[in-house]
C-alpha cells in the first residue's frame, strides 16, 4: 500500500461521492432508488488500495488472486445493508459448503459506505480477513457449515451484519460476533475525502477478535 495507492483511492472515493450526489436529486425527483453500483465501486477501490487486480470480467472470484470483495452502502438505503454470501454455499463449486472454500481465498474484503456515529460525516471503511489463517473467522464459518449440514440452518446465504453508522469494527452473525481488522478508513468533510487510517499490516498480521454476545 503506497502513497500512490492512497492517492488513487482518494480520487476514486471522490468520483463515487460526486456521482452519488449528482444523481441523488434526480432519483429523489422521479422517486426511484439510487442507482449507485456499490459492488463495482468497491471492487475497483480495493484493487486501487491493494494493487490486486480484478478478474477481467470473467466468472469466478472478484480479484485475480482468488480474493472476494463484499460491499454495503448505507446512504439512503431502503433495506438494512448487510454483507451477503460471505462464504460459499449452495453452489456447484468443488470447494463450496466447506472450509475448503476459504483455503482457496487469500483475502475477504468488506467495503462499507456509511456515516460517522457522532459527526454524521460520510465515510468509507474497508476491513480485511485473511481467510486461510484467521482462526476465529474460520471457527465461525465452520460452525455455520456444520449447522447448515445438520439442517439447523437452511439458508445458503451466510450474512454478516456490520456496524452501520457506528464507530466500531464489530460484525454480528448468529455463529459468531467478531471484531474485524480495519484496513482503511476515509471521511468526507465539505465534500472532500481524507484518509483517517491506512494500515497495510492488516494484510499480513490482521486477525479477528472474539467479542462476547
UniProtKB/TrEMBL annotation:
A Pfam family it matches: RE_MamI
Highest taxon above the source species: Bacteria
GO biological process, one term: DNA restriction-modification system
Any GO molecular function: DNA binding
Protein's name according to its UniProt entry: Uncharacterized protein
Amino acid at each position: 500500500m503506497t502513497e500512490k495507492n492512497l492517492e488513487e483511492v482518494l480520487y476514486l472515493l471522490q468520483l463515487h461521492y460526486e456521482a452519488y450526489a449528482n444523481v441523488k436529486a434526480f432519483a429523489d425527483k422521479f422517486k426511484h432508488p439510487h442507482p449507485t453500483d456499490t459492488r463495482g465501486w468497491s471492487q475497483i477501490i480495493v484493487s486501487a488500495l491493494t494493487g490486486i487486480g480484478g478478474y477481467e470480467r470473467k466468472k469466478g472470484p472478484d480479484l485475480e488472486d482468488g480474493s472476494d470483495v463484499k460491499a454495503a452502502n448505507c446512504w439512503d438505503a431502503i433495506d438494512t445493508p448487510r454483507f451477503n454470501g460471505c462464504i460459499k454455499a449452495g453452489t456447484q463449486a468443488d470447494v463450496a459448503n466447506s472450509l475448503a472454500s476459504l483455503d482457496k481465498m487469500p483475502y475477504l474484503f468488506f467495503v462499507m459506505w456509511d456515516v460517522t456515529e457522532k459527526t454524521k460525516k460520510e465515510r468509507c471503511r474497508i476491513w480485511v480477513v485473511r481467510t486461510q489463517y484467521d482462526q476465529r473467522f474460520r471457527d465461525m464459518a465452520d460452525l455455520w457449515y456444520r449447522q447448515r449440514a445438520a439442517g439447523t440452518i437452511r439458508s445458503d446465504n451466510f450474512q454478516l451484519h456490520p456496524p452501520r453508522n457506528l464507530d466500531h469494527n464489530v460484525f454480528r452473525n448468529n455463529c459468531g460476533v467478531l471484531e474485524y481488522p480495519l484496513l482503511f478508513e476515509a471521511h468526507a468533510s465539505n465534500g472532500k475525502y481524507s484518509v483517517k487510517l491506512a494500515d497495510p499490516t492488516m494484510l499480513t498480521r490482521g486477525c479477528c477478535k472474539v467479542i462476547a454476545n
